[in-house]
Amino acid sequence: MNQAQAFVFCALLGVSASACAPKEKQHDAFLQVDAPFQDFVHNFEQVSAQEGQPLEINDLVVQFGSTPSLNETGVCEWADNETPRITVNQRIWNTLNDYDKQEVIFHELGHCILKRIHQNTEMMAYNGTVQVAESIMYPYRISGTIYRDNIVHYHDELFSKHDQF
Ligand SMILES: [Zn+2]
Question: Does residue 24 lie within any of the structural domains?
Fold first, then answer.
């Protein structure tokens, strides 16, 4: 569709001009990372730089709230032209250690910032005796201990090239 046709199409639908504008970022960047999450979001930026994909997060909401199911620790919601939003279950969060917490926030930032999808594959852990998640984007939580012991791998994997949504 050329531009003239696109204009007519929009006019016929009676939608606003902005709804028909070329797909660009139309909302203003908005950053509201609540205090318990700030260190982890900052860590994510640091790791992104270490991994050669420096990111500066300026459009994100992270806050406590209700997740779709009671045993879900966090959820990311994002859509074109909206500020991505991570909601964390406070009851579960309060039981986590710092490695667990980083794993949870990095997983959700994987969705909300890197636009990554879940990855189900497993790998042999560093000690060669157990199968563990190959990616932070594993659909289930990775224990803080396994995360810590394989953290270099998980950070490398998170910022390498992947299929996106
Ligand atoms: Zn997920």
Answer: no
Question: 23-54: per-residue pLDDT in tens?
Answer: 565 789 999 999 999 999 999 999 999 999 99
Q: Please tell me the distance between residue 162's alpha carbon and the centre of ligand 1 in angstroms.
A: 15
Short-list 114, 89, 105, CA closest to 142: 105
**Residue 17 within any structural domain of the chain:** no
CATH number at residue 74: 3.40.390
Nearest Cα residue to 62 out of 46, 75, 79, 49: 75
Cα distance between residue 102 and residue 81, in whole Å: 27
16 CA distance to ligand 1 centroid (A)? Answer: 34
User: What percent of the chain stands above pLDDT 70?
Assistant: 82
- The model carries a pTM of 0.82
Domain interval for residue 152: 31-159
